[in-house]
Amino acid sequence: MDFGKVADHLIPSVNFTLPADGTQTGKTLEGSTPFKKPEFYIGCAKWGRKEWLNMIYPLKTKEANFLDEYVKHFNSIELNAVFYSIPNADLIKKWKAKAEENAIGSFVFCPKFSRTISHIKRLKDAEVPTDLYLSSISEFGKFLGPCFLQLGDNFSPNSFEVLQNYLTHLPQDLEVFVELRHESWFADAVLRKKLFEMLGRLKKGAVITDATGRRDCVHMELTIPQIFIRFVGNGEKHKESDFARIDEWTAKIKTWLDSGLEKVYFFLHQHDEKDTPILANYTIQQFNKHLGAKVPEVKFITKETELF
After folding, report:
1. What domains are there in the chain, each with its CATH number?
2. C-alpha to C-alpha distance for 209 and 212, rounded to whole angstroms
């Protein structure tokens, strides 16, 4: 994931402090009490990483069986694989079967909307590909988590009405989180307020993307009592900084849980994905220790686990 990537030598100068809660967060959680059994889903963005052989996948695992192994370690995945083309139902059924047969407990796929819808059609006249997408992902059944709609860097507030219209016509029971990247969504206070109020009214979530070079995307606006965080780490060289960032997120999420947050989706990315399972496991450990999550830890094959 290259979004928000900065030159390595600049990383130590970045202020990673999480901003204060946005205005919409206060409205969303106002009057709520702690949810009795909040749910926690922690995972990665893809399972097809050869670097994870002999780390979390047995050395001789074939690529076709990587998902079988992935679901033994994580309870969710931010499914980017369906972004590049609208999946057919048979493929979804195949992935579902792998989760049914191998997952250590509950497991959810959180599929990204296909780029035909978000980047090519740009949400206009997208009824046909949207219907195809929804029909396919429905095959996940109980394994379907929220979908996330990522708009391109050039999808600006000029398209506010297009976005609102598209979200309005999605099935009301479809859980959706929206990720926006154009800087104007966050820089203009009036537009920002209008955006998050609209998402709250439609009961759609707002993705928070914690990337080094785009601190404006850490908007801290909750439009529903759930969070979907895309955390982008900076790799082995900066692991202490990344761990400290996870610690701060843990503390922040604790305040939201105390105010009624119901679900946490936290997905780990890195520009070099080799060490992502290590960062993910640290996240699981901290959430279990401080937030009362009961997410099974990653089972490492190598001595990586001795880092902890």
Report:
1. 8-302 (3.20.20.410)
2. 10
Sheet arrangement for strand 147-150: 147-150, 176-179, 205-206
pLDDT score for 71: 98
Query: Distances from the Cα of 133 to the Cαs of 67, 113, 143, 180, 205, in angstroms?
Result: 21, 8, 16, 20, 19
- pLDDT averaged over consecutive 10-residue blocks of the chain (308 residues)? 85 94 97 94 95 96 97 97 93 97 95 97 97 97 97 96 98 96 95 97 98 95 98 93 97 98 97 92 98 96 52
Strands 208-210, 176-179: pairing is unpaired
Q: Which helix (H) or strand (E) holds 92?
A: helix 89-102
255/37 Cα distance (integer angstroms) = 15
CA 292 to chain centre: 20
CB of 46 within 8 A of CB of 280? Answer: no
Q: Are 105 and 75 in contact (CB under 8 A)?
A: yes
- The whole-number pLDDT of residue 86 equals 92
Q: Please report, to the nearest 10 degrees, the dihedral formed by the alpha carbons of residues 39, 49, 151, 43 taken in order.
A: 10
Query: What is the full DSSP assignment across 161-216?
Result: HHHHHHHHTS-TT--EEEE---THHHH-HHHHHHHHHHHHHHT-EE-EEEBTTBGG
**Six token digits for residue 261:** 């947050």
pTM score: 0.95
Report residue 269 as tokens.
């990315």
pLDDT of residue 304: 42
Structure tokens at 25: 């967060």
User: Cα–Cα distance between 70 and 81 in angstroms, integer?
Assistant: 14
Q: Tell which phi-psi region holds residue 4, choosing left (phi > 0), alpha (psi between -120 and 50) or beta.
A: left
